[in-house]
Design goal:
Blueprint (H helix, E strand, L loop, with lengths): L17 H25 L3 E7 L5 H9 L7 E5 L5 H4 L5 H4 L8 E5 L8 H4 L5 H20 L3 E8 L2 H13 L9 H8 L1 H15 L6 E5 L3 H16 L12 H11 L7 H8 L5
Parallel strand pairs: 1-3, 1-4, 2-3, 4-5
Helix pairs in contact: 1-10, 2-10
Length: 278
């Protein structure tokens, strides 16, 4: 803890040209495919926790992070206000309910940090409750990582000028207007209060076992690449992504069913097993 500058004092990232962006995006997307397969083989679990300003690019980043992945062991949770049932329980209850099973990955679009962000700033939670939440969240994340969960958490930070530009663009684009609500303008009016809440959150919940990363998003391409590469690097830390050897029993079953021999020349295998077209 204690390694952060004030959020509004952080440098904005330089741009990234389209060719470099596309090349890095494809590489990291296919790397994530191998990581997802490794999770399935090993029964490991991954949680990606994303916080950030309205119009900071959370949706676009998540879309590109997941578009090549198998959707079956993947969950994207868009966190909004708690339901009536959830309001009657501890605020971490609904997040415990959404944690991934072995071999799965869960992505949270906004997270349990709402307790010390929106609930703090908007006065939804008493001061003593949100101040207590820092220790509760640290304990929650420690429990996850001690249990083997690969936890990645980052903030998408956008400047006030760029945020204004993006919201106006949404208003002027008919198919994007649904993204803009009165809540956006309420939050914009309280940017100073939210900056203070973010700064406190970084200082109080940046730990060795669950560190924060802040990604500047005024340049969308660079932000997407940095976010996705961060997930790949942290989830795959110390992982062996080498595809497994064929199971001898599966090989024998293929021989019996198709006459397939993995040691035969390609042409022979193709003639016995039929066309190699997918």
């Amino acid at each position: 803890m204690g390694r952060w500058k004030k959020l509004d004092k952080m440098d904005l990232a330089d741009g990234l040209d389209e060719e470099a962006y596309e090349e890095r995006l494809i590489q990291v997307q296919y790397r994530l495919v191998h990581i997802q397969q490794w999770l399935a083989r090993t029964g490991k679990r991954a949680v990606v926790a994303i916080e950030g300003w309205d119009a900071a690019g959370k949706g676009g980043l998540i879309k590109r992070m997941t578009e090549r992945l198998d959707p079956r062991p993947l969950y994207v949770w868009q966190i909004a206000a708690p339901t009536r049932e959830e309001q009657g329980r501890h605020y971490l209850y609904r997040f415990w309910q959404r944690l991934p099973a072995p071999g799965e990955m869960a992505i949270f679009d906004r997270t349990w940090y709402g307790r010390v962000l929106v609930e703090r700033v908007e006065g939804y939670t008493p001061k003593e409750a949100w101040r207590r939440a820092y220790d509760e969240i640290n304990s929650f994340e420690r429990a996850l990582t001690d249990d083997g969960v690969r936890l990645v958490k980052f903030i998408l930070h956008v400047s006030a000028k760029e945020q204004r530009k993006r919201i106006i663009e949404r208003l002027e684009t008919p198919e994007k207007r649904f993204k803009v609500t009165l809540d956006d303008f309420r939050n914009i009016a309280k940017r100073k209060e939210y900056l203070a809440a973010y700064d406190d959150m970084l200082e109080r919940t940046d730990t060795d076992y669950a560190p924060w990363t802040v990604i500047a998003t005024d340049n969308k391409r660079r932000a997407r690449i940095e976010g996705i590469e961060l997930v790949a690097d942290m989830v795959a830390d110390d992982a062996d992504l080498t595809p497994p050897e064929l199971d001898p029993k599966v090989v024998q079953a293929a021989k019996d069913a198709f006459g397939w021999d993995p040691l035969a020349p390609d042409a022979v295998r193709d003639n016995k097993g039929g066309s190699n077209d997918d």
